[in-house]
Automatic annotation (TrEMBL):
InterPro entries: Seleno_YedE (IPR026366), Sulf_transp_TsuA/YedE (IPR007272)
Record's protein name: Putative selenium metabolism protein, YedE family
A Pfam family reported for this protein in Swiss-Prot or TrEMBL: Sulf_transp
Record keywords: Membrane, Transmembrane, Transmembrane helix
Membrane spanning stretches: 87-112, 118-136, 157-179, 185-205, 226-245, 265-286, 298-319, 331-351
Keyword hit for Transmembrane: yes
Organism encoding this protein: Alkalithermobacter thermoalcaliphilus JW-YL-7 = DSM 7308
Domain of life: Bacteria
Length: 363
């Protein structure tokens, strides 16, 4: 147990310290890495939404995917697979993003916000944990998206190729790609460093299997704290990194935190929706990104859902801002929770009905 902690904490710490360095070099404060925010920025850069303050082809995302792709190829773990309820995965990814943008951050950014003193992240953590508990209950009742199957090799290369295309567009800056001139989208670390960090993090997460949802889920469901110690490592090393590199932005408070709001109810409910979706999908946004690099087309479909959710959130006024949560955002979170739970219970009912029907036939 001690040996496991000694390995997992510093491995998670790599992500934590690199996130603090990205902030020092230009990424938004409390957002050295935010998978949801980065997909939102990429969606904006591609013109899927026109919120001009959040449009940038974040090179960290291609780095995550390509880092996982390279390591999985070298280790023989690159396995093209998919076909496990793709439409439902798209919908779950869509609503996961809605919840994240109401909270203003993915589960990873939640940890990084907390490590820089943003106490609003505590409310998000409670909501995320509650959502994971709800997700565990659904799993115990029989929820499943089904098994994936082996796919043609080329299908596994689609997300790595998509990542290369993003990097090409970022370098060449064609006229049909949008770039923010102000706001969070304009705040960025140098391209080469951001890409290098993405590659390193992608490789590390691929090898460690770290997942924010998985860490909390396994601790509750299996009393296995292996991955949870990795999350602790992210927090501790990010905290150290912020104190060393970003002391001017470190502030323990609820108010006046960068790219955050202190509407506690909706921070809680937004991350509750994220927690439920992450468990039902089998991984948080970071984990889905790494799986996509390993050839998992189900994870790729989830990413398309995330990007569509980001576009929808900004096109229809669902995303929060430092001013607070929008009325549309509040309605969307409630609708999201209802739809996600309806999907889960419909599957559970179908599974139970099938089993009961099977028993009747045998008797």
């Amino acid at each position: 147990m001690v040996e496991s902690k000694l390995k997992t904490i510093p491995l998670g710490g790599i992500l934590g310290i690199l996130s603090a360095i990205l902030v020092k070099l230009g990424n938004p404060v409390n957002m050295g890495v935010c998978v949801a925010c980065f997909y939102r920025d990429i969606s904006g850069a591609m013109g899927l939404h026109r919120a001009d303050v959040v449009q940038y082809l974040r090179p960290e995302i291609p780095g995550f995917i390509l880092g996982a792709f390279i390591i999985s190829k070298l280790s023989g773990e690159f396995k093209p697979r998919g076909g496990s309820s793709p439409i439902l995965r798209f919908v779950l990814g869509f609503f996961l993003m809605i919840g994240a943008l109401v909270f203003l951050g993915c589960p990873l950014r939640m940890i990084l916000r907390l490590s820089n003193g943003d106490l609003n992240a505590l409310t998000g953590l409670f909501g995320y944990s509650f959502g994971i508990i709800v997700g565990i209950k659904l799993l115990k009742e029989g929820f499943s998206l089904g098994k994936s199957t082996k796919k043609p090799k080329f299908e596994g290369y689609i997300m790595p190729l998509f990542s290369v295309a993003i990097l090409v567009f970022l370098i060449t800056k064609p006229s049909f790609i949008f770039f923010s001139e102000s706001g969070p989208g304009s705040m960025k670390a140098p391209f080469i460093i951001s890409l290098a960090v993405g590659l390193i993090v992608g490789a590390v997460i691929q090898r460690t299997r770290l997942c924010t949802a998985g860490g909390i889920r396994d601790a509750i469901l299996l009393k296995d704290f292996h991955f949870l110690w990795g999350l602790v490592g992210i927090f501790i090393f990010s905290l150290i990194g912020n104190l060393l590199f970003n002391p001017q932005t470190f502030k323990i408070a609820f108010i006046d935190q960068p790219i955050a709001h202190n509407d506690h109810l909706w921070n809680f409910l937004g991350m509750t929706l994220v927690g439920i979706c992450s468990v039902l999908l089998g991984g948080c946004p970071l984990r889905q990104t790494i799986l996509a690099g390993e050839g998992d087309s189900d994870a790729a479909i989830t990413i398309l859902g995330l990007m569509s959710g980001a576009a929808f959130a900004h096109n229809f006024g669902l995303a929060s801002s430092p001013k607070g949560v929008t009325p549309n955002g509040k309605i969307a979170v409630i609708i999201g929770i209802i739809i996600v739970l309806s999907i889960a219970y419909s599957i559970i009912y179908t599974v139970k009905s099938t089993k009961q029907g099977g028993v009747k036939v045998e008797s």
